[in-house]
């Protein structure tokens, strides 16, 4: 496995090459594919790994992607709705 400081470089190179090979692919998806591929292809050059990825996955919709994280505002709003009432209510300490 690649060391952490090298991992970011590997992911960046993979994603850059993937966006060259698939110009319609957004950078976020390219990075997500790179992260998914890192464990299996870390021993390969990242540009070559991206080329193999494209050959192995001619239809980009066939790749199982992880769900994207929700924006922080949604999490904060949900947290406030769940716990805000408790925080606003006065508490009595015995």
**Segments where pLDDT lies below 50 for 5+ residues?**
none
Return the structural class: mainly alpha
The DSSP helix count reads 4
Measured between the Cα atoms of the first and last residue, the distance is: 56 Å
Rg, alpha carbons? 20 Å
What shape does the CA trace take?
elongated
State the major sheet. Answer: none
> What fraction of residues sit in β-strands?
under 5%
Number of strands: 0
Compute the average pLDDT.
Answer: 78
SSE run: HHHH
Q: How would you sum up this structure, described in words?
A:
By secondary structure, this protein is mainly α. The protein contains 4 helices and no strands. Helix 1 crosses helix 2 and helix 1 packs across helix 3. The longest helix is centred in the N-terminal third of the chain and has 18 residues. The N and C termini lie far apart (56 Å). The relative contact order is 0.13.
Structure described in brief:
The protein has 94 residues and is mainly α.
List keywords for this structure.
elongated; mainly alpha; 94 residues
